[in-house]
Design a protein that fits this description.
Blueprint: H1 3-16, H2 23-39, H3 41-52, H4 56-82, E1 85-86, E2 97-104, E3 107-111, H5 119-130, E4 134-138, H6 144-153, E5 163-165, H7 170-176, E6 183-187, H8 190-201, E7 207-210, E8 216-219, H9 225-237, E9 249-252, H10 254-272, H11 288-297, E10 302-305, E11 309-310, E12 315-316, E13 319-322, E14 339-344, H12 348-356, E15 363-367, H13 371-380, E16 385-388, E17 409-410, H14 416-421, E18 423-430, H15 451-458
Parallel strand pairs: 3-4, 3-6, 4-5, 6-7, 8-9, 8-15, 9-14, 13-14, 15-16
Antiparallel strand pairs: 1-2, 2-18, 7-17, 10-13, 11-12
Helix pairs in contact: 2-4, 3-4, 3-6, 4-5, 9-10
Length: 469
């Protein structure tokens, strides 16, 4: 057998032993994960700086703090989440017990991405541990310094019988996916998501796919332009634009574009200084291949702000493009870099039509001081998530499920949704062994006279509706 098959078999034996099921065990592993974050904080900062020159402030906020928040929320609520959920019963089962048991799936595979290599690996891991699973983790090989850190240090904190880290490139990951897992959680691109789903289909393995997409940002004429510029610039250029929920393009009127451009220029200068390449608060593209792809997108439209590049440093300046056409390359794929195209529309109806003509995104953003405009965009579009008058901030709430729809993903996690994602809702009915006389009505030979009574005791009745005049 291959090493991966041996590993999966070992974890499956541990899961079948029931070791991961007690709440005390889950809590102990979650607390150990918290110690990993605390005791390796400086190493995490160093590894992310080596991989992407990610600013320490951004690492603390988007990697460590979000993981800590998720961990604390889970520990605060795990006892409640694990309880059986009792359900309504029909007349014939009134003396019985009917409930939903939250069962772990078994052996779970979590494949993390490179752009937030700690957050997007550990947050789903928290849900998998909380739900009582054994887990194989596969960090991205692209963020190689974080991959090395996780592979070397995380196993020192978690139970090696039940949790393992696998380092693998494309070929090794392909072989890893040949094994039977009970659940697969993948974060990455739609193209790789299709490969994951195809591999999972061979074993009928359920999946969560956290993908990406082109997240539109509609800016109406009724808004505070300076506030919009700061919030859009922060969301777009955080992590050098390598964020799946970053606003991918702006839709606004021609008049708003004229107002927004100087405000964006002012915000970028305020954030990163006159030369962002010298700013300690602006990151870099993760690798040469990714740099070349993003650099090529600069050929769409023309740069009203920024546009400078440095291949050796993998630096692309915070850039705003205007004159972009709907069929330009930059509008055909997720940018995943510090470039913000602006396209003009004539009205909110035009913006909604533009959004709905494309694949459903991971997030939609709208800026307006008019609640009617915000509600129209919310009600007449579809996306994984929605945020009004800000960007990215909706993902900081553990109370909100996070996930895509259609091309942008499949499934949900964060907070209670993470626990539910990695739990099988097992329906259970515990009937009494006696009272057999009540059961004879449903046994052959069938008697028509028994049917009305059976229907009366088993069917759910429509409740009377109250009409407000």
């Amino acid at each position: 057998m291959s090493p991966h098959t041996v590993l999966v078999s070992r974890l499956r034996a541990a899961w079948l032993s029931g070791k991961t099921r007690p709440m005390e065990y889950r809590v102990a592993q979650l607390e150990a994960l918290g110690r990993f974050l605390d005791e390796n904080k400086l190493d995490i900062l160093e590894a992310t700086a080596l991989d992407m020159r990610k600013p320490p402030f951004e690492v603390e906020l988007s990697e460590i703090s979000i993981c800590r928040s998720e961990l604390n929320h889970t520990l605060n609520n795990l006892g409640t989440w694990m309880k059986d959920e009792h359900v309504d019963k029909n007349w014939v089962t009134q003396l019985d017990s009917a409930f939903i048991r939250k069962d772990p799936y078994g052996v779970v595979l979590i494949i993390g991405p490179w752009n937030y290599p700690i957050n997007l690996l550990l947050v789903p891991l928290i849900g998998a541990i909380a739900a009582g699973n054994c887990v194989v983790m596969k960090p991205s090989e692209i963020s190689r310094n974080v991959e090395r850190l996780v592979a070397e240090m995380l196993p020192r904190y978690l139970d090696k019988d039940c949790f393992a880290v696998v380092t693998a490139g494309v070929e090794e990951t392909t072989r890893l996916l040949e094994n039977k897992f009970d659940y697969i959680f993948f974060t990455g691109s739609p193209s790789v998501g299709r490969i994951i789903m195809t591999a999972a289909a061979k074993h009928l393995t359920p999946v969560t796919l956290e993908l990406g997409g082109k997240n539109p940002c509609y800016v109406s004429d009724s808004c505070n332009v300076q506030n919009v510029a700061r919030r859009v610039a922060w969301g777009r250029f955080f992590n050098a634009g390598q964020t799946c929920v970053a606003p991918d393009y702006v839709l606004c009127s021609a008049d708003m574009q004229e107002k927004l451009l100087p405000a964006l220029r002012e915000a970028i200068t305020e954030f990163y200084g006159p030369n962002p390449q010298e700013s300690p608060d602006f990151g870099r593209i993760v690798g040469d291949k990714h740099f070349q792809r993003v650099q090529a997108l600069l050929r769409s439209g023309h740069a009203a702000i920024g546009g400078q590049t440095d291949a050796e440093a993998r630096y692309i300046a915070p850039t705003v493009l205007v004159g972009v056409q709907q069929d330009d390359p930059i509008m055909e794929e997720e940018i995943f870099g510090p470039i913000l195209p602006i396209l003009t529309v004539t009205s909110v109806d035009d913006a909604i039509a533009f959004i709905n003509a494309r694949e459903r995104p991971l997030a939609i953003y709208v800026f307006s001081s008019c609640k009617k405009v915000v509600n129209r965009v919310l009600e007449q579009t579809s996306s994984g998530g929605f945020c009004a008058n800000d960007t990215i901030m909706h993902i900081t709430l553990t109370s909100l499920p996070f996930g895509g729809i259609g091309q942008s993903g499949l499934g949900r996690y964060h907070g209670r949704s993470s626990f539910d994602t990695f739990s099988h809702p097992r329906s259970a009915l515990l009937r009494g062994a006696g009272r057999e006389a009540f059961n004879t009505l449903r046994y052959p030979p069938y008697a028509r006279r028994c049917l009305p009574l059976l229907r009366a005791t088993t069917e759910t009745k429509r409740q009377a509706a109250c009409t407000l005049l």
